[in-house]
Amino acid sequence: MSILYLVxxxxxxxxxxxxxxxxxxxxxxxxxxxxxxxxxxxxxHYQIQTPLKSYHEHxxxxxxxxxxxxxxxxxxxxxxxDAGCPCISDPGYELVNQARxxxxxxxxxxxxxxxxxxxxxxxxxxxxFVFLGFLPRHAKEKNEVLQKWMGRExxxxxxxxxxRIKQTVRAIAEIDPERKVAIxxxxxxxxxxxxxxxIEIIEQMLEDATIPQKGEFVILIEGVDEASQExxxxxxxxxxxxxxxxxxxxxxxxxxxxKQVALDRKMKKRDVYESYHVQE
Length: 280
Known about the structure:
The chain is an alpha/beta fold. It has helices at 19-27, 36-45, 60-72, 93-101, 114-122, 139-149, 165-175, 199-207, 239-249, 254-265, 269-278; strands spanning 3-7, 30-33, 52-54, 76-79, 105-109, 129-134, 155-160, 180-185, 193-198, 217-221.
């Protein structure tokens, strides 16, 4: 039977893989992976001899065609990422849709995830959380995403590279210098580190290399307790002034400002739009 397997793999420690995952990778006809050199190390460790083929952001369309042809021939194909679960901040969901549209079976073999691992260790609230993946690189877009989600109750989970970790932490501190955050790096590896503290202290730890800029990072931002937020910065100004503040002080378009005001005040965007444009 043709099956597309989505297989979770270790995020660091090679022992963090299930018996089912090893069996699936062993029995599959082909393993498609981000970097064949990375997956080859895992296969060598578990004596898996299944042929490896590449599937990544730059060749996913061509590779998807190849995978669908193999499924048409009755083959069993496993898809993995370099670390963690395929399709999570990695390409793959388009392939899953194509496989389903062609009535091929899709089976998931779950495994480790860096964001969840960090959340478990951080001590931050874990009943509500939102995964944001990698933030936009440009400062304006990054700040808009942070402004939007830091006003929610949910703990926000972000992936970041060692090259941009300081800039992202600074952006969080500028929005709320009192906010509690956690930084996780080298998760499940020998030098695993998870630090939870106020953002300004975390920022200083990055500056003095108490938190080295090495490895891939997970940033967790504690959500706000909305029940205790009785006073908002925009209370005392009317709806239209609220919109104008975002336009003039945050360099937002009127469309984005209206959307943000609707989120702030828990209103329908249409009502804010009509109120703002009536004054014109």
